Amino acid sequence: MTQWLGLPFDASTHGAELDIVMMMVHLLMFALFIGWGTFFGYTIWRFRKGRQPRAIYEGAQSHASTYLEAVLAGIEVVLLFGFSIPIWASQINTLPDEKDAVVIHVVAQQFTWKHHYAGADGIFGRQEVALVDEQSNPLGLDYKDEHALDDIVTGELHVPINKPVIVKVTSKDVIHGFGIPCLRVKQDAMPGMLVPVTFTAKKIGVFEIACSQLCGLGHSNMKGIVVIETRSEFEKWATEQSASAKEINASGGLF
Which pTM does this prediction carry? Predict the structure, then answer.
């Protein structure tokens, strides 16, 4: 279905639901285009000057258009309340238990992405604005806090297959858009807010992260990658990254 719709490859468990809604909306729009286009053409032909030399001021006497508009409104209500809102709520309001998920903080900044993992201890380290250094400590981690020592900060987003992921999105400057087309994820990154979104990947591969909000002159270059891998590969990566970060940070080295 995604192929003939021209949609990106679907690598998420919830993508099929979104694609179905997308298909129904496009079919409705196509039906409206054909219907109103045909009606417009008919009125031009039916009420042409040669056929209707004298204007009729009484107006339409039929209520067919009213009934048609009611039907269309009903279809739109069903699409909105029957499909769109429940799917949206399941991705925003109904989050999996963090104990059973991989929790990642995604921080947007002109024009890059930083991905923050809690590390081996499973606890995110303390952060302070005063400690932010764009070269050595872009997220302002306080390395006097033992929980911050093993935190992972990386430009690549790594997630395991078939395990819930909770991404908490924020921004350091302007509004950005955290978008992963293959995972059917799109969430605004708002300064001062940590907005959660969840997904579960079902396909292994390397895919693109793009900014979906116009955020400045370098907007088109604000790209990243998400690596979807097996659980064992992800755990190996996370263990190595966490151990390396702890070794460097404990010795006072730079990020």
Answer: 0.80
